[in-house]
Amino acid sequence: MREAEPVVRVEGAYEVAPDLLVIPDRRVQLVPNVGLIGGEEAVLVVETGMGPENAAEVLRFAAEYARGRRLYLTTTHFHPEHAFGARVFAGAATYLANRAQAEDQKVKGPGYLEMFREFGPLVARHLDGVELTAPDVVYDHSYDLDLGGRVVRLRPTGRAHSKGDQVVTVPDAGVMFTGDLVEARQFAIFPWFPPHDTDVSGLRWLVVLERLADERPGIVVPGHGEVGGPGLLADVRDYLRLLRDETWARRDSAMGEETIAEEVHAVMLARHPEWEGREWIEKGVRCLCAEHGAGHA
Ligand SMILES: [Zn+2]
């Protein structure tokens, strides 16, 4: 992996809707889009950035923006750049998350901390001092958070990019935070790391995206990449569908996995020559090979 320093730059924050800010990722790897959603009485922060230094900066910025309003925190899923700064918010914000995500953090968090430390010295430095922390509030089905004059909906999607993905929507503003279920101008991130982590499901992910795309939110904040409209959801849905179809057509003809990965890689590059994250195509193919047949059942 090419290494860039994974730093959240709060000075880039801008309003995508009234009292609703995004701190953009500037297309830097391992920096997520961070959200601040304000109501009359409280502000919800979405994502912490990776490690205590980023989280402290996000918290400082959020506290200043809140001007005395109460703070809440949620994260879209447990991956390090999204959630491994939550400890810094303890005492300053109430941390809410869905049960499957809380489980992911507990079960997978320590392994991901070790794995990400291997990515390079800059990433490792940002992971120094990370303490994994359980959410203050864990909910089961869905959670409507009243910020005062504005209700934010937290909804788990079921297993897709991870076991515990959660989508955050702001109905009055037509805004949806998708976490890594959606990236802009990037091949879908398949954290397919057998035997350590095989929770990602291309098939379930596709079903989730079909559902989310049907909702047609006006503004979509992806996990990584530029904020966009409902077209972002359609792009990922179409990509996942094509990835499945191209992979399975070859699998049906009993082609070997290496050859399938090579051929599908070429098909996808031809379709999306401008997209980044090419290393994720092969992982997606391998995940869908493992899921081959499940759709016929
Ligand atoms: Zn992720």
UniProtKB/TrEMBL annotation:
Gene3D superfamilies: Ribonuclease Z/Hydroxyacylglutathione hydrolase-like. It comes from the Bacteria. Pfam families: Lactamase_B. InterPro entries: Metallo-B-lactamas, NDM-1-like, RibonucZ/Hydroxyglut_hydro. Residues 31-224 form the Metallo-beta-lactamase domain. This is MBL fold metallo-hydrolase. It comes from Streptomyces albiaxialis.
